[in-house]
Amino acid sequence: MNQIYSIQNGSLSVSASTQGAELRSIRDSSGTEYLWQGGPAYWTDRSPVLFPYVGRLTGGKYVLDGNTYQMKIHGIALYLPFALVEHGPSSMTFQLQSDEGTLGQYPRAFCFRIRYFLEESTLYVEYTVENLSDKIMYFGLGGHPGFRVPLEPGLAFEDYDLRFCEKCAPTRVGFGKTCLRNGADAPFSLTEDQILPLRHDLFDDDAIVLADIPRQITLEAPGGRRSITVSFPQMPYLGIWHAPGTDAPYVCIEPWCSLPAWQDKIPVLEEQEDLLSLSPGQCYQNTWHIHIHRP
């Protein structure tokens, strides 16, 4: 049964669901909602957790240990119920333990925990992956939060920018029409080498996925009073997305540890260089955070 749990402090109130351990709400003390609330016209999700694969697999298949397996887009975690294993006033932890069902899709025993905790106006997201199998785990990991745009009355989607914390020269990872990698990586131009002005048609060809970037980005509107900064120090890739070909009133800021598959090639996980690897009995931990700026 899907259940919603909440945490709060003097600045923020956050809720998440046992279904996929998905964030459901991020509100400040004035009641302003920052997280996209889902909707069938654009996108029903709010903040899926991507594990143990990010993005699409060619033909929905991959190879591991010489065997072929099937897996949906973005792995298995977002489709499964988690158990709440810790809940305090400003912290909550959800856990997904491998079982017969997961082993049929991903043949590694694991324990995956997601801890959400608050410190002043910042929500921290802590991922812990424990390899309980006797073989190396190869896996992807990432976040997919959608944020409301605009964040306040009197502003429009096009008033907002995404601003990196410093000047940079990103590379856009090349994707074909099937949203699989095609090798056509190219430089991605930013205004003043730092700013991406938002427009709905940016996403007509689906997500923008960037590499060679600073690990912090802010969603803001010049003259606006509310903004959001996403920091992802351990994530080398960033997906930026909303439903293609629409005027969707949100933008997803997605920190990723790894990339989707190559088109026309069923991936062999042992050979996919951008995947994380974890030896038997070892733990991997990754923390990123969302900071809310408000008047």
Write down the domain tally. 1
Give the low-pLDDT segments.
none
What structural class do helix, strand and pairing data support? Answer: mainly beta
| Helical content band | under 10%
Gross geometry: globular
Cα-atom Rg, whole angstroms? 19 Å
The secondary-structure element order is: EEEEEEEEHEEEEEEEEEEEEEEEE
Structure report:
The model has no long low-confidence stretch (mean pLDDT 97). Helix content is 2%, strand content 40%. By secondary structure, it is mostly beta strands. The chain has one domain: Beta-galactosidase, Chain A, domain 5, CATH 2.70.98.10. Strands 7-8-9-10-24-20-19-14-17 form a 9-stranded antiparallel β-sheet, with no helix packed on it. Strands 13-22-21-18-15-16 form a 6-stranded antiparallel β-sheet, with no helix packed on it. The longest helix is centred in the middle third of the chain and has 6 residues, at 100-105. The chain has one helix at 100-105, and strands at 4-8, 12-17, 23-28, 49-50, 61-64, 67-70, 83-87, 91-97, 110-119, 122-131, 137-139, 142-143, 146-148, 161-164, 171-172, 186-187, 195-197, 208-211, 216-220, 227-231, 237-241, 250-256, 276-278, 283-293.
